[in-house]
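A reminder from the course coordinator: this example appears on the midterm review sheet, so study it carefully.

Given structure:
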């Protein structure tokens, strides 16, 4: 059974996810328009930037400069990030008619 704190944390996580999705899409579109590079080249650059952000944050936490208590473990963190990427990038089956994309008309 979900506790109140779990519901708040889930709500916070969803709000953060929406904000990040929007920010990354804007950055992707701007980079694509400005550079005229192929989409996968821009996405690869975004992935490299994400890895760089992880490295910078992990380095800061290795030096115990943050009071949050996170202790990075790059080997398992990278596997976790790869899994999250894989899940997010894989089309999810939809079983709800309202969620299906319209492809024609009858």
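Designed residues:
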């Amino acid at each position: 059974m979900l506790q109140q704190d779990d519901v708040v944390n889930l709500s916070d996580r969803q709000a953060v996810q929406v904000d990040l999705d929007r920010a990354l899409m804007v950055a992707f579109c701007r980079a694509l328009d400005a550079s005229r590079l192929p989409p996968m080249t821009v996405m690869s650059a975004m992935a490299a930037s994400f890895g760089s952000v992880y490295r910078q944050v992990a380095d800061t936490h290795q030096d115990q400069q943050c009071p949050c208590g996170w202790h990075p473990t790059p080997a398992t963190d990278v596997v976790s990030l790869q899994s999250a990427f894989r899940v997010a990038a894989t089309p999810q089956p939809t079983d709800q008619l309202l969620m299906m994309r319209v492809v024609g008309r009858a």
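The mean pLDDT is 86. Residues 95 and 101 are 12 Å apart (CA to CA).
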